[in-house]
Amino acid sequence: MYTQALDIPGQQPKGKPDAVENAAYQAEFDARIDAGATIEAKDWMPEAYRKTLIRQISQHAHSEIVGMLPEGNWISRAPSLKRKAILLAKVQDEGGHGLYLYAAAETLGVSRDELTEALLSGKAKYSSIFNYPTLTWADVGVIGWLVDGAAIMNQIPLCKCSYGPYARAMVRVCKEESFHQRQGFDALLAMMGGTEAQREMVQDAVNRWWWPSLMMFGPHDADSPNSGQSMRWGIKRISNDELRQKFVDATVPQAKVLGVTLPDPDLKWNEDRGHYDFGTIDWDEFWNVVNGHGQCNVDRLATRVKAWEDGAWVREAAIAHAEKQAAREKAAA
Amino acid sequence: MGAQMTMQTTPEHLEYVLRLGDAALIHGQRLSEWCGHAPVLEEDMAMANMALDLIGQARLLLSHAGKLEGQGRDEDALAFLRHEGEYRNPTLCEMPNTDFAHTILKAFLLGSFSLLLWDRLGGSGDLELAAIAAKSLKEARYHAEHTGDWVIRLGDGTEESHRRAQAALDVLWPYTNELFAPNATDDAVSAAGIGPAWSELAADWEAAVLPVLQHATLTVPARTPFQSTGKFGRHSEYMGHLLAHMQHLPRSFPGAKW
Amino acid sequence: MERKEWPLWEIFVRSRNGLDHKHCGSVHATDARMALQVARDVYTRRQEGVSIWAVKASDIVASDPDAKPELFDPAEDKIYRHPTFYKLPDEVDHM
């Protein structure tokens, strides 16, 4: 399960200004948000709130679906039957999470097909982390440990977001998610207890995934112009930098247990802050990958397009059969 | 029938259990290839569930085979470190996915067969095998139902889906001959009360499969003399590629722990 | 051929006997059998259920949130419907 901070500039909805909307409804909505109440699907909501939610939930859903691919790359090559079953169940869960989230987005009046078209046309974004390649089996473990770990940090606050269907989907997602991080760490522990070649494989994977994992929390708060509104609306609860710090603090001791080095010479405990300090994130790399120039951007999208197009005749067949059946039942009645 | 403890494991008994384990393994491996690529998200979930059932069955069966063999080989040694000629799955299991129709037809033909087989194996004199069968029977019921429904939707759907389903059936049907080919292993196992000779299941299998194919408006191809031989260890060209892929890691890192 | 989306079904799962079916999400399916099968695959992967209801989303009739005042507020002052409304002598207050 994977979100990166979903407030990347340039993706603000281009809706009409809120001023044309009913002021009384707006006031009631604001009051409910301020009181921490939950907004449900059929309740009145400002158009900008609805659009922001659709964008955020669908980006989140797309991330789950595209996120099946990097790890799915290793299902057929998993090194033991136990690991094969675990990985398949895990990647399947990501599909399930995508499904829950599409269902939550559909309550806002968009169809899953529309959202899918937006992904496949390149209009909608998904988490950039999946544009990095999975080069070895250790990547599967590291994705579970670091990428899912970062995602969980991002997601737990969303279980309390102001939009009911999204919050409930996230509760279900988070419940299933904790197995994902644990299985990753468990796989890495096993490898660290194996041969020297395996330990090198793990360290190499950590070296490649550490910084991209930190980028998953999105730009610094100061460079995150939409965060304020999302906070105000209760669809974002904790800031990017705060979550990132929490993740670093939680991960450093885990790395020690595992026996790997995190690839950051500036990483050290700061007694005054009570947190770990860490080095500077390469934001050029982040934006390059977001803007389509990662190793796998083209492949990931092409794979989704192919699955969707290859499946068109299947989806049509099921509809055609159901229509025939209905007609037959009608004729027989 | 005596419990297995008192039974000397015969080569035929071991071969029969390996055949069951390999069938589940290779079929599961193929189904898992769909994960992330299915025509619709719901079906992605369904196919992964079936693959997980099959991999689970393979683990139990190969572990059991390892114990019967008594050479200290566990499920992974058997799954990953044998040569192609030692795998005993029917060739049908290793056939490529090609398109959704091939996968569904294959899973339906195999699932309907497994359903009958597990039902009979519930009474096996090999009590471990009987316990695995009882668990697998429930899973096979769902597989046969889910894939059977899809066979009907594809066959009786659009012109294109009908054409694809028929093409898949035409390719796969001849491979079902192999399921029922008589052989000495089956004879010995059947005589020992361990499990049915697969040829005994032919009539019941046809009775289960043909009405669904008919409902799907598909034409059942005429039987031909074609005989595939995977369960005797001579496989199709597809098998080598499947194994190269599946075995690559454990073979590249001898002594590694996963 | 014009592309049509599969109908949406709302899924309700009874987690164990003795409890109500509870709404847990939705799936797309072209017929009732498929809806039940995929609901099983999507929503009961961790033994979350012993029974599933699938209802076509288009068949659900929902109350209008704007009608909340006339539907639900009138119950507000009927406090005598609640057991705590009645102050009874201590000896019998557990009734």
From TrEMBL, chain A:
Stored Gene3D superfamilies: 1.20.1260.10
Q: One GO molecular-function annotation for this sequence?
A: phenylacetyl-CoA 1,2-epoxidase activity
The record's InterPro entries line, in alphabetical order, gives: Aromatic_CoA_ox/epox, Ferritin-like, Ferritin-like_SF, PaaA, PaaA_PaaC
Keywords (alphabetical) are: Oxidoreductase
GO CC annotation, single: cytosol
Q: Which GO terms describe its biological process?
A: phenylacetate catabolic process
EC numbers, comma separated: 1.14.13.149
* Top EC class of this enzyme: oxidoreductase
Among PANTHER family, the record links this protein to: 1,2-PHENYLACETYL-COA EPOXIDASE, SUBUNIT A (PTHR30458:SF2), PHENYLACETIC ACID DEGRADATION PROTEIN PAA (PTHR30458)
Q: What is this protein called?
A: 1,2-phenylacetyl-CoA epoxidase subunit A
TrEMBL record, chain C:
Work out whether the entry's keyword set contains Cytoplasm: no
Keyword terms:
Oxidoreductase
In short, the EC number is 1.14.13.149
Pfam families registered for this protein in UniProt: PaaB
Keyword field contains Oxidoreductase: yes
The cross-references to InterPro entries, in alphabetical order and at most eight, read:
PaaB, PaaB_sf
Q: What class of enzyme is it?
A: oxidoreductase
GO MF term set: phenylacetyl-CoA 1,2-epoxidase activity
Task: Read off the NCBIfam families from this record.
Answer: PA_CoA_Oxy2 (TIGR02157)
* Protein name per UniProt: 1,2-phenylacetyl-CoA epoxidase subunit B
Q: Which organism is it from?
A: Denitromonas iodatirespirans
Organism lineage reads as: Bacteria, Pseudomonadati, Pseudomonadota, Betaproteobacteria, Rhodocyclales
Q: Which gene encodes it?
A: paaB
